[in-house]
Amino acid sequence: MSVLVTGGAGFIGSHTCVELLNSGYDVVVADNLCNSKPDVMDRIALICGKKPVFYQIDVCDCEALRCIFQQHQIDAVIHFAGLKAVGESCGIPLRYYRNNLDSTLSLLECMQEFGCKKIVFSSSATVYGPSNPSPYTEDMPVNTATNPYGWTKVFIEQILRDTAAADADFSAINLRYFNPIGAHESGLIGDDPDGIPNNLMPYIVRVAAGQLEKLTIFGDDYPTADGSCVRDYIHVVDLAKGHLKALEYANMNRGVEAFNLGTGNGSSVFELVEAFENANNLTVNRVIGARRDGDLPAVWADTQKAKEKLNWSAEKTVQEMCADSWNFVKKK
Ligand code: NAD
Ligand code: UFG
Fold this sequence. Notes:
binds nicotinamide-adenine-dinucleotide, alpha/beta, globular, 7-stranded parallel sheet
């Protein structure tokens, strides 16, 4: 079976390519490298002994996509390509809407033209918006967002529901990720953002590596046990494996389904920093700062549906996530 992986050079996409190749899928990657590096394909090959077929294209570009579908019999698509920085999306919303929506529309049109009927989409827990209480269940309303990035996820989920409603043979899975961290155990691929990281784990590892002076913990006065925000951190390899289960599900079923990919357990910012220190036997300089605009106090997943219908649940511990995140940075 041949799978087109858009955004396959990125953090989650590269780990999913590894799992796909190791399970015998043929993998074709389409990525414009706007947030990733070309050597990722070689690193995947070092891990798996096989390399995905790679096309450096913009997924918004219908003609370039068409060439891929002409050259390969694509059976299913996993759609990771997108811009993902919440804060940046507030400053350049049109770029986010253009990139994330256009790439999805081009892809769906091309899939339609070539009779490809299965897609797994990278959605986000952000679609649950600010009003639903944790733990989030897939049947909660997902019709609001607090930033342009989040709106692109809400809109794309709707586009997929509409596409499936119009074609009884179409199958779409909206995977709502919680907070992916960690890296492949080889240390060859991981989260490697350009510039100063926005997300907590990439920031922690750079402080630990001495590349940044100190971590600012955004608020210690939230209504949580220790006052810092709680998130559901999930190892990226567990997350990647969830995509293979979703593909199998899309093969067997028609219509649209959403699944949470999280562990079902929350960790506070303080807890994650301490887990990182303990796992790696080092100290992370930190200070308490003001709350960051838009942060919710506590976000974690109800994981029952993925367990029951996908036969998937996360296995790796926070300890392993912290050790693997650091291993990747040490090896770079
Ligand atoms: P990433 O930035 O590492 O990977 C995305 C990849 O898509 C990059 O390699 C980038 O070059 C590519 N890309 C972007 N726009 C493209 C375009 N128009 N054409 C071709 N390639 C393009 O991000 P990630 O963390 O691996 O996230 C993957 C997906 O998962 C994204 O859609 C993101 O919104 C979603 N997601 C991520 C998180 C997270 O915390 N990492 C959480 C929820 C959802
Ligand atoms: N945090 C800090 N200091 C930092 C960075 C983060 O204290 O330097 C805190 C944040 O306030 C938050 C927690 O660490 O409480 C996690 O923050 P991240 O930025 O790592 O992750 P978010 O939960 O804010 O956002 C992530 C993804 C989004 C996605 C969202 C919901 O980055 O793409 O989860 O799933 F939309």
